[in-house]
Amino acid sequence: MLEGLFYRNRRLLILMMALITVAGLSSYYVLPRMEDPVLTQRVARVNTRFPGADATRVESLVSEKLEEELREIDEIKELRTISRSGMSSMTIELRDDVYEVDEVWSRIRDKIDDARVEFPAGAKEPDFEELEVKAYALIVALVWDNPNDVNYAVLRRSAKQLEDRLRAISGTEDIDTFGDPDEEIVVEIQPDKIAALGLSVKEIAAQVESSDAKLTAGQLRGTKSDLLIDVDSELDSLSRIANTPVQFGSEGHSVQLGDIATIHKGVALPLSSLVIADGKPAVTLGMFVRDSVRIDHWSQAAKAALDEFEQNLADDVSVQTLFDQNR
Q1: Domain assignment present for 24
Q2: What are the backbone dihedrals phi and psi of residue 12, each rounded to the nearest 5 degrees, phi first?
C-alpha cells in the first residue's frame, strides 16, 4: 500500500528521501565519538587507618569486621584484603553480570558504615573510593627548556594557569596533574640579628608555631544554637608571617619576624614526584572528557586553548602534546 502511494506521488517520495537523508546526516554529526568504550565501574577500594596497631590487631579488629558485613552483599565477586601495621586496605570487585552498580555501591557504603560502629577506639573512618577505569583524552607536558636549574615555581604556576583554561572548556570532566611540586613558605633566619637579641632558632620556631595554634577563642551560646569563635590568625601569607611578633628579653620586648628573617615562597624539597619529558623536567596534565561529549569537538577546543596559551608562555617553558585520543 505504501509503495503504491510513493509510486503515484513522486513529490512525496522525494520529500521522504530528503527527510531520511537529513535525519541521517544530523545523527552522524551529533553521534558521540571516543576511542575507548565506557566501562562499568565494578572495582572499589576501602582504606582504613588504625594508627599504632600492628598487623594482627588491624586484621582482627578492622578487616574482619568489614569482611563480615560485606559478605552479605551477593553482588560482590571478590574481596581482597591486606592488613599491615596501622592500615587495612580492601579491594572490592563486583560480579561481571552486575550492571546497575550505583545501587550496589550504595548498599556497600551502608555496610561499611555498619562495620564502622564495631571498630575499636583509635580506628579512623573508612575511606571508600570507586576505581574509575577511564583513559585520558589528552596528555600535555609543560617542559623546562632552559639549560639552567629548573624553576619549579614557574612550572607550577604555568601548569595551574593551563589547568584553569582547560577546565573552562565545555565537556572537560577532570584533570590530573603529575610532577606538580608542593609549595612552602621558607623562613631564613639571619643569625647575626637573632644573636643580638639572645634568641635561638628553636625559640623562634616555637613562637611562630604558637601564633598559628588554630584553637577556638571561645563559644557563643544561644537559645537555638551554639557558635564557636575563631580568631583569624592563620599564617597563610607572606605578609602575615612577616608581621608575626617575636618576643625577646625578660621585659617582654618584641620584634616582627620579617625584621630578623627573610621570608619567601619556595618548592618543598625533596620533591614528592618527578616528571621527565624528553630528558627535561616537566609537569604533565591529563584530561578526562565526559562520556556524552564528542571527543573531536572537545579536542579542537583544547587545541585552540593550547595554542593561545603557548603564545603567552615564558620562553623557558614549552608545551608538548604527549597523547591525543583524537589522533
Answers
A1: no
A2: -65, -40
- Both 200 and 298 in one domain: the answer is no
Residues 173 and 277 in one domain: yes
Residue 264 lies in a domain: no
Do 178 and 283 sit in the same domain of this protein? yes
Q: Domain containing 229: what range? A: 190-259
Q: Does residue 304 fall inside a structural domain?
A: yes
Q: What is d(CA 238, CA 183) in angstroms, rounded to the nearest whole number?
A: 13
Cell digits of residue 188: 631564613
Given 210, 234, 259, which residue is the final one in a domain?
259
Single-letter residue type at 123: A
Rounded to two decimals, the pTM is 0.58
Does residue 1 sit within a domain?
no
pLDDT averaged over consecutive 10-residue blocks of the chain (327 residues)? 65 81 76 63 92 91 94 93 93 91 93 92 90 86 90 88 95 90 83 87 83 60 63 65 83 85 80 86 93 85 94 90 87
Paired residues of 189 in beta bridges? 261
